[in-house]
Amino acid sequence: MSLAQEYELLRRVPFFAEIEPAKLKLLAFMSERVGFDDGKLLCRQGDPGDAAYLIIEGEVEIVLEGPAGPLTVATIGANEIVAEMAILCDSPRNASVRAKGRVVALRISKEPFMRMVREFPAMAVSIMRELAQRLDSTNNQLRTALSEVQRLRNGAGAPTAH
Amino acid sequence: MKSMTAMASSAEALRPGFIPGAAPQTDFAAEKPPQPEANDLEPSVYRFILKHSMRQQILLLLLTLSSFPFLYYSLDLPKTIVNQAIGGKHFPAEFLGFEFDQVPYLMILSALFIALVFINGAFKYFINTYKGQIGERMLRRFRYSLYQRLLCFPLSYFHKNSSAQIIPMITVECEQLGGFIGDAFNLPLFQGGQLLTMIFFMFMQDPILGVAAIALYPVQGYVIPKLQFKVNQLGKQRIRTVRQVADRVQESAAGIVEIQANDTVKLRLTDFAHILGIIYDIRFEIYRRKFFAKFLNNFIGQLTPFFFYSLGGYLVIKGSLSFGALVAVIAAYKDLASPWKELLDFYQIKENSRITYEQIVEQFQPSGMTDARLLLEEPERIMPLTGELSVANLSLAEDDRARVVDAVNFTVKLDEHAAVIGQSGSGKNELALLLARLVRPTSGRITIGGADLAELPVAVVGRRIGYVSAMPYLFAGTLRDNLLLGLRHLPMRPAEYDEATARRRERQLYEARRSGNIEFDLHADWIDYQSAGVSDQAQLMDRIAEVLARIDFEEDVYGLGLRGRLDPATHPDLAEHLLEARQALAQRLVADGITNLVETYDPERYNSNATVAENLLFGTPIGPTFELDALADNIHVRRVLDKLGLTDDLVEAGRQVAATMTEMFAGLPPEHEFFEQFSFIDANALPEFAAILTAAENGGTQALDREQRDKLLSVPFKLVAARHRLGVLDEAMQQRLLEARRAFREELPEEARGQIEFFDPARYNAAASLQDNILFGKIAYGEADATVRVPQVLGQVLDALSLRSAVIDVGLDYHVGTAGSRLSLAQRQRAAIARALLKRPDLLILNEATGALDAPAQAKAMAGLRQEMAGRGLIWVLHRASLARNFDRVLVMSAGKLQEQGRFEELDRKDSLTALLMAAE
Hints:
Strand content of chain B: 5-15%
Largest interface: A-B, 24 and 23 residues
CATH architecture of chain A: Sandwich
Number of helices of chain A: 4
Strand content of chain A: 25-35%
Structural class of chain A: alpha+beta
Strand order of the largest sheet of chain B: 8-15-16-5-17-18
CATH topology of chain A: Jelly Rolls
Number of strands of chain B: 18
Helix content of chain A: 40-55%
CATH class of chain A: Mainly Beta
Number of strands of chain A: 6
Number of domains of chain B: 4
Shape of chain A: globular
Oligomer: heterodimer
Radius of gyration of chain B: 39 Å
């Protein structure tokens, strides 16, 4: 796996899609390839978020540590990015990410990423655009969901207590 | 042993200042070297010379006087040769009662001439060497006295004066004294004697002309000192001003952070220029006066010949004086000039030296100096301090200002632990200094075990009382040397010398004695094992480890040890054990299934976690020849690459990497931190590489000139395959680099073999660190936890093999740097505490000595320290009041007074000062 391939992978992630190739290559170069054995944590719930991971090989599980014990909420496979919000916000991890089998991931650290965003405003704009689209689609989903709730409420008469 | 103790005890009762106590600790009865003397400084340079070198000066004079007949005869002989041997008519001539013909006579006189030349030369040689010897011995004595006095200076001196002023005094300023001291008596007597002889000769020729020849000497003798006096004053002023320059330079070096952080550079420069201006003015004034004096002197000097020519000529013309007499007097007068000039020059040098001496001596008489005798005295034996420390009416006033410590009274038993708390400025720090006798009280008294602290020799205070400040000083050298500082009071065991070295040592000792220097041997073993409570080197090592563990410093030193190096030649066993550890680690990695975390060096395999340079060299460079950064320029490496046809490919690889770099880093400002963190290419070199890449676009790398190709070649050497993923180090390339590795090793010329230590699975590598030797490979990039897990496993392996203490031992050889600058403040504080604990003091005084430690480390160190000092005295000035909990007693200082004292629980009540102090934290 070389830098060129990592760059290709990054380019396919919508979050980075709009970033200028040279800068994306730099981001790939500054990122670190990390191998995780089965069961190892890529990040732990509650820890400060300091990096996003692009899964190159293998699968990871998103695990919520609740009072009732760990609960796997999703499984994410190759070519996908996890925990990308961590490199934009300062909030702690809201879930753990655990390797399911051997995993190789590209670790994109917050510090160089943020420096790049600051250095190249165009990059910030493209990320903003991506986030706006996400917000838009989330809004759409919310609207659909709300109207669905409304519809159900109307249809079912009085709301039921949960 | 028993009988000796008994004898010593009876003697002790008679000795004043004897400290009663338990069994004796050390016996110095046998083979004690003479005690070093305390030197006093004479007020004037001539008294100093006479006191310490009178005999030599007399000997020198006698030597000089006995050279005169030979000198005189050698001046006379040429005349005899010319007039009698060559131009003579009456032969055979008589010589020493024998008769000789002309030629043998000439030969004999010539032989005599050459013999006299030899004798005169020999006299000169001996006299000059002897003068040099006297001068150097005296200079050595002077410097030694100055340094000894410096060690007695009160602490307050160093608060008010900078050491930059003292350094030139001991080093350069006194240098000229050496030359002067050799001449001090000899030169004036020798030259003066000559002068008198010639004047006498002139008077014999003609009394009137004799008077004329010296008529102006009184004028010169009066005027020149007058002029010189002013020059001397200026010279004094110049010395003082030059000291200020040293002062400014030192201050600027120490305060460079403030200067740059506050943009006060211009002010500093102006200030410096101002002082330089003053020096210039003084110097110029000195020149003017000095050369005017010279001018005047020369003029007066030439007035005399003027009288000879005019007056003498007149007399000859008138017939009252014979022509021959005038010529003889003029010739004699010419000879007068030289000794007269020498005398005047000597006068200037003498004045200069006098001023220098007096100025230096004046600076070395600060008030409040410790009596040198207290500092050097070595009591018959030193007893442990027991009983109690009692402070009565203790006060300290600084510079007649308000009292910093004001009438303090308390008693602490020497098996109690007392805490001293208070706000900063409350006098608690000064109290600690007073108790350690580092500062003398203005009034009041401290007694310890019944003895007056002020009367105790430093030998007792320094060995039985420990003191650690908040900013401890570490001396440049190893950590071990610094820890053992408190155990090195005296040479304990003589060094063992072979015959030749012993003779040399004997001579050094003789010289030291002649200069009044201390007579101890630097190379003796100074470590006092008894003071540390151990009996030999091995036990001392265990004890150090124990103390380090006590104050939570062991881990740090262990880390230093892992990064340290070991010479297998001097520690063959340890090297062997470390190789075992290498094996054990390899097995452990397999057993734990984590072999992927370390990529071991394998002669037959490319190490993808190492750089290209490391792979090629496959060893640790010793010295600069094979420095990894410059490997691309190395002639041996280049030869191998050329031979294997690798050069072109590596240049091409360099081109690709450079292309990627220039693409990625384009548009970043050159000062951007990414360059330093990530780029192979320095930001400043980027445009150059861009130009090379453009040039290579058409004709490829072949079209580039040699320099451009060299530039590209240097790039891929830093690549790490596993980390950089730039796609230029594929399998085929790695194989070829392996070939190059082999070829490099095989073809390495004999003379370069000492410059590199190759990786060898079965050998300890002296050039690499302990950790690298045990790992024998690289921690893998891109394996989660590798950087945490591998050191962990490594530590476990070392523990299993009981090698931890050996690693700590290596860590103790770490060089702490100037003033300990290579250690953090917290580490320095810990080292200083360990140093104080090692000498097992009866009373340990800590003056905010753990302020740089974080809270958990502080708690650990405090617990360990209290435990270590259990049953002995501890007085701890704390930087936080709440830390005083659990101490046997608490002393609370405020505005110089001891406001509260008692148990912590008693003091911790509403509205007490203790409660207020804790509330303020």
